[in-house]
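In this supplementary section we document a worked example of the pipeline. Step one takes a protein sequence of length 259 as its only input; no multiple sequence alignment statistics are reported here. Step two produces a three-dimensional model, which step three serialises into structure tokens for compact storage. The input and output of this example are shown verbatim.
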Amino acid sequence: MKVELFNDNFQNFKQYGIPKAQLVIADIPYNLGNNAYASNPMWYVGGDNKNGESKKAGKAFFNSDYNFNIAEYFHFCNRLLKKEPKERGKAPCMIVFCSFQQMPMVIEYANKHGFKNYIPITFNKNYSAQVLKANMRIVGATEYALILYREKLPKFNNNKKMIFDHFEWRRDNKNIVPNIHPTQKPVSVLKRLIEIFTDEGDVVIDPVAGSGSTLRAAMELGRSAYGFEIDRKMYAKAKEEMLSDVKVQTSLMEFANEG
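The serialised model returned by step three reads:
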């Protein structure tokens, strides 16, 4: 088993000689722009509007949220996945987290880049970040993703149990898994998805690794994992906080970006 996190753009994957993936897990920007924290208490200092606006008011999560190219993204994600084998029940797939509104766009671009089939899945929360809207409207308490695959149905480990298209969104214990990214996906949720679509020893790739939670989930399940994170600060946090305390062999590599 091997785990590597690169401080680089996933477009440069070839220079690292990483193996092709059985599963690519991807999280694209939700295009919230300056309203990223709009209904979240973090908009205000200490979460209280009496204290005035915080530094996060009117700010996007990351600068890269403004220049995300979904066509280029799918082009490279397709190349990160292994080819479909001749055997049944062995095909790879891709899972993309996105907003409900983005689903038609994701389906369209995925189809253009070889992912002709999809299965939408929903994650149900028992909480909502939209606290500031709670007295004004029904607040959002769901997350969405699309399982994308080419021709053959992907590898599927259901252990003879029916798997529904909705999952419980369990928050990680902060004493065990640090929360270091504004859109961080729970390790417990990622582990469930990885268990279903890969076997021990398979390769999982996260092209925009963020907090590194996908890599941690894969490591804890005995899968090889590779991730790319362009933001230097987030890369450092992922390396030092998310991945440092996992009791497995890791190889964390840094690419010195120019400019």
